[in-house]
Amino acid sequence: GTAALIWNEIIREKVTNLIMNQSKEQRILNFVLQNAVRGDPCSVVDTIDKYCSQKEWAMNVGNEKGQILDKTVEEVNPSVALELGTYCGYSAVRISRLLKAGARLLTVEFNPEFATIAKQMIEFAGVQDKVKLLQGPSGEIIPQLKKKYEVDTLDFVFLDHWKDKYTPDTILLQECNLLRKGSVLLADNVIFPGAPDFLNYVRKSPHFQCTNYPSHLEYMQVEDAMEKAVFLG
């Protein structure tokens, strides 16, 4: 079933990496540089979706869940947003294209190779003025947001990094007083690969009001969902 599909993708990716002597992420970037319109974030997003649906699967949020992300960003209309897990920069570009003038997105990526790719993706899309990429572990960067990056509170947080980090990072955001009444958290992949402890935490907490958006895993017909958690203070 699903596991076999993804396992096949992983093996195919590793073989391609060996033959081409470059990573899948590098191939995604190259495809964008060659096929998308420079300075057009929508074109960059569409081009990544095209590559990942036709050529190689990748863990971007994808277009189906991307529309849930878009709708949430438009509803919140954030001045300051945080993304945990930049990967290739797909959702950073997707979010930033909806931000009002003067708004900013801080995006955190642990993997230095992914951060390098994402930086180029963000610049090619022309959204580098709105997006600040922070490379390092989320657990170290979150406590620095107030002092080092002049964040008062976050209006919107998109969680799309390691699933076992969702809960500790949410708790850290609360402990660092980075959430205000009405701050919105949106978490990807809560069904597949799944974040059961996070769902358990936010749904049982009196501080959050939750909504579940059933969907499918990016570029596949596998059940997945996104969870929206509004901070009540």
Automatic annotation (TrEMBL):
Any one GO biological process: developmental process
Top EC class, one word: transferase
EC nos: 2.1.1.6
The UniProt record lists the keyword tRNA-binding: no
Coiled-coil regions listed: none
Record flagged with keyword Metal-binding: yes
Protein name, as recorded: catechol O-methyltransferase
Gene label: Comt
